[in-house]
Amino acid sequence: MKRTALKTQLVASLLTLAFAGNFTISTAQAASMNQDSVMVGGQSMLPSKDIIDNAVNSADHTTLVAAVKAAGLVDTLKGKGPFTVFAPVNSAFAALPAGTVDTLLKPENKASLSKLLTYHVVAGKLDMAALAAKIKAGGGKAELTTVAGGTLWAMMNGPHNITLKDEKGDVADITTYDVYQSNGVIQVIDKVLMPKG
Description:
Residues 48-193 form the FAS1 domain. It holds the Pfam family Fasciclin. Residues 1-30 form the signal peptide. InterPro entries: Adhesion/Biosynth-related, FAS1_dom_sf, FAS1_domain. By secondary structure, the protein is of the alpha+beta class. It has a single domain (37-189), classed as FAS1 domain, CATH 2.30.180. It contains nine helices and nine strands. The chain has a seven-stranded mixed beta sheet with strand order 4-3-9-8-7-6-5. Strand 6 (151-156) and strand 7 form a beta hairpin. The termini are far apart. The model is unreliable at 1-35 (pLDDT under 50).
């Protein structure tokens, strides 16, 4: 892994821990520590594994994994990529209106489910540093085109947090950054992003 990418991963991971644990850590301290993986859903997400092989181990992403399987997207997300996946946690799916997930998982709704899931995927490897650079270049907002053909907008929310706005105007926070995969990167988010229509 390139030195800059490793440093970005370490800093992002430790910032996440700092916010969750209410303690502070300096960038210099973060850069001096060594960590090969990020913990998501109680499991190490190994950079040597692909997006699917890591996601199936996360207790926080069982709904997402079930949806990816139902939509027939396993082979796609095991592909070469690279992909950036904005991965909603189980509680994000649970917050949808009652019955939404069950309805989407029905075989007759496979096309709708696939559209929703690919709305959470962007071509390329957009880690925190790359997203922040796009936001800065865009004057405070970066427009991202999803694999589904929709649009997401990334914005800074304070110095160390990036939010995503969907086509319906709802906003999700990235809660765990830069979970590197062999074929891209996962950014864990706290809401399901919704395309128009």
